[in-house]
DNA sequence: TTCTATAATGATAATGATTCCAAACATCGT
DNA sequence: ACGATGTTTGGAATCATTATCATTATAGAA
């Protein structure tokens, strides 16, 4: 944990930013909830517990800053709320999401299936891809199975 | 044009809704601006021109209704504004978007490149895909070329 | 046609997410 | 330590969207 915070501190400092107590508290919350896709509001509430004097705007700014530094990934599932995920070293490319419209669960696919498509975009459209977002809405296996046993 | 309005009228009526003058004006604006990705505010301003007495809430309500009926598709590019696209009969599947982070332009790809991926999802993950969203952020050809001539 | 029940509308208030701004803070040269 | 300069902060403001509510329009029954 401390090692990862130290690493992020380095990343900030290399760009001329400081790891202030507020930023550190925010990063700690992200590290402790690495599995979840937290919204800024979620992060804010959790940070409040360890640093009650923090302001919501600071959390937004910190998340935005970390996003620019590629420490976190800003996600958008179409519900009007931005969510933030820590990027692990291994995931240079984004993973994709399977969002179940029945139970609301979200599963991640860590494979990146879009590399051939991105190459095609560069060649056929002259479009240089920096980032992408791919989400699927549908019915997850669990809901499918319970639905079958119901009917 | 009239034929398409008539068709939408049928769709509304089949679900017990009426094509009121306000809804018709909204649909006309969408038909006349089919190429664009209009925000609710955009639609509102355009509808005002042909039906000045309309309220913003009605435009929002109408767009939401049309979205539920799958007449329009509600898009979200992460800029905090929902945008609405008419769905054409041919596009059962969504098209994809190339969003330029430099000039903000947006290009559409009408091909659906995800069909093989969706099949894989069904088989490997047991996930039944209903809908998907694929957006690429990057630098468009035009910006790339002008950037090269600048430097 | 007239009455009645229901759906739809427009104005405005409320909400939720995000951003702006003046004040607090830290850093550096003196 | 002291002031100048730029950074960071928290609260207030803003923007998009949704809910409320009183009013109006509509369709069907009598």
TrEMBL record, chains A, B:
Coiled coil (residue ranges): none
Segments crossing the lipid bilayer: none
CDD domains (UniProt xref): Fur_like
Top-level taxon: Bacteria
InterPro entries in the record: FUR (IPR002481), Fur_C (IPR043135), WH-like_DNA-bd_sf (IPR036388), WH_DNA-bd_sf (IPR036390)
Pfam families (UniProt xref): FUR
Protein family according to the UniProt entry: Belongs to the Fur family.
Protein name per its UniProtKB record: Ferric uptake regulation protein Ferric uptake regulator
Organism: Thermobacillus xylanilyticus
């Amino acid at each position: 944990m401390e090692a990862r915070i130290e690493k992020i501190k380095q990343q900030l400092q290399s760009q001329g930013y400081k790891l202030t107590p507020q930023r550190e508290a925010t990063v700690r919350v992200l590290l402790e909830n690495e599995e979840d896709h937290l919204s800024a509001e979620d992060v804010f509430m959790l940070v409040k517990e360890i640093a009650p004097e923090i302001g919501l705007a600071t959390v937004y700014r910190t998340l935005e800053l970390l996003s620019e530094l590629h420490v976190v990934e800003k996600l958008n599932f179409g519900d009007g709320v931005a969510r933030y995920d820590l990027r692990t070293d291994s995931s240079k490319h984004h993973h994709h999401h399977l969002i179940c419209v029945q139970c609301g669960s979200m599963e991640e696919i860590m494979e990146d299936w879009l590399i051939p498509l991105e190459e095609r975009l560069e060649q056929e459209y002259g479009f240089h891809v920096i980032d992408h977002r791919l989400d699927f809405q549908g019915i997850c296996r669990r809901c499918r199975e319970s639905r079958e046993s119901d009917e």
